[in-house]
Design goal:
single chain; about 45% helix; alpha+beta; about 325 residues
């Protein structure tokens, strides 16, 4: 059946036809909700709400806009409602100052305020959409998602719809019930705010500059150093002002000495045993970290570590201590 035939069947109450036609857009809608909200579970909840609203509203869909535009309108509004009732999501480096090198890591924050990584496998093609400013993987990098969360919600929506998804100004105006002039004004303000927060090079540009061979060397070196609990080898891979953060713990450390002190005192102290598996996360080099558990004689999930690179060195290690997220990245429950 063509999309028009599927749409007509769905409008008449055919749930299977609705599932088929929504399936064509579901992955992109999920990524859109994630960019808006910075959280995979929040994105899943917002998308489910949006698809339910779309199903209920489908009989009244008159085709004045494309189905794609109509679905993004519903999903965007669902995200805006989520944003109204919960705090802004951030990374630890935006939550508070770096800890002193002698400070112990604090307790995890119960409140959900942290940005989370996004599974690369859930993304569409890596290239940019026609008319877009950012390519797909660039638009889920941690720095980009963190910058988006600092924008007012409607500015955030405008930038994502226009510069990531490639909607025209007129289409964005229809999605947000505003005028093309207002969209243009919001987009200019959003560009200025985001550009002030983003690094000079995106991670995608950095990875292309490095090349596959150099990236493989970095990955092998990181895995080997961590599994040998070799703090000096890890630190040798860092930039001078490198950071390490561990959401949901708000504590983070800056500089080689601070990172080394933390590694020696906690994750890489003498008795710890680790295994690492590559994980496609946020368009950046990432790993599932498994910690040996003597009680079960297994390596169990501990965290998803996402690396940010500057040239051929690591400038940020963001360790998301969320074992429950491993299945999103197709990582096994134990080793």
């Amino acid at each position: 059946m063509s999309e028009r035939e599927l749409l007509e069947a769905a409008r008449l109450g055919d749930e299977e036809a609705y599932g088929t036609i929504v399936g064509l857009h579901r992955g992109d809608l999920h990524a859109h909700c994630y960019r808006m909200l910075g959280s995979v579970p929040d994105a899943e909840d917002a998308l489910q709400e949006a698809l339910l609203r779309a199903w209920r509203g489908l009989p009244g869909f008159e085709g004045r806009s494309s189905l794609r535009t109509w679905l993004y309108r519903i999903a965007t509004n669902a995200c805006l409602k989520v944003i109204e009732r919960r705090p802004k999501r951030v990374l630890p480096v935006d939550f508070g100052p770096a800890a002193d090198p002698d400070d112990r890591p604090g307790e995890p924050l119960v409140e959900s305020v942290w940005i989370e990584p996004y599974p690369d496998a859930a993304l569409g093609p890596a290239v940019a959409a026609p008319g877009a400013r950012y390519e797909q993987r660039e638009s889920v990098e941690l720095a980009f998602i963190a910058a988006l969360q600092h924008l007012p919600p409607r500015q955030r929506a405008v930038l994502i719809l226009r510069d990531v998804l490639g909607f025209s100004g007129a289409e964005v105006a229809r999605v947000l019930d505003t005028t093309p002039a207002s969209v243009h004004s919001a987009l200019q303000r959003a560009h200025k705010a985001v550009d002030e927060r983003l690094p000079e090079l995106s991670q995608q540009a950095t990875l292309r500059t490095l090349g596959d061979a150099a990236l493989r060397d970095i990955v092998r070196g990181y895995v080997d150093a961590w599994e040998r609990a070799d703090v000096d080898a890890v630190v040798a891979m860092l930039t001078d002002d490198a950071t390490i953060a561990m959401p949901p713990i708000s504590t983070w450390y800056r500089g080689r000495d601070g990172v080394a002190w933390f590694l020696r005192g906690w994750p890489l102290e003498g008795r710890a045993r680790w295994r690492l598996l590559p994980a496609g996360a946020s368009g950046q080099p990432a790993f599932g970290h498994y910690l040996w558990d003597a009680a079960t004689s297994r390596f169990l999930p501990h965290g998803i570590n996402v690396l940010t690179l500057h040239d051929a060195r690591i400038s940020e290690i963001t360790a998301f201590l969320t074992p429950e997220a491993f299945r999103r990245f197709d990582l096994p429950d134990e080793l």
